[in-house]
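Morning run. Coffee first, then this:
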Amino acid sequence: MTTVFVAGTGTDVGKTWVAVRLVAALRARGHTVSARKPAQSFDPVELGATDAEHLAAATDELPTAVCVEHRWYETPMAPPMAAAALGRPEFTVADLLGEIVIPKAGITIVEGAGGPRSPLAADGDNVDLARALHASLVVLVGDAGLGTINAVELSVAAFGGFETLVVLNRWTDSDLHRRNLRWLREAGHRIVTSVEELAELLDARLSSP
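And here it is:
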């Protein structure tokens, strides 16, 4: 059993896009993969294409297995804020932990919400949940463009103590993107620029004795 926590350096950096394609790449390598989204908030017009529904389609699970039904919050705010805005009960990291069913075999991709310190519950954030889950490693998704060095440095520091792999998403091989990549690698971070590279790293790590 391996639990991989997928986080972003912030909102709208492509966490779900990366997670869905990582599921497909790992399954193509023969791994059994499931996905979990502890809580999701969304604009009602997104219903039918929420994060949980995309992840469920990738893993052949039910959307309500990926994210339990009462953790779907139809307003685009951090989940505990969305719950309050909708007049629904407050919940804690322990509540989320008790609802996440991790299969006893294979790889489980757990996707957070927002950046490392974005609230996921009334008493905790993505880092707190990753710790509560005893995640095997963290996949951190960041945009490859302007601002990524600061965002990656702060986010990796927030996940201190975890093995962290960084994906520079929306990679174009532009001069700026190459310079950002070189700077971050020279700073000691493990960086990839594609989901395929990420899957190769994870496959090698999971296959090693």
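The chain has a mean pLDDT of 96. Good start to the day.
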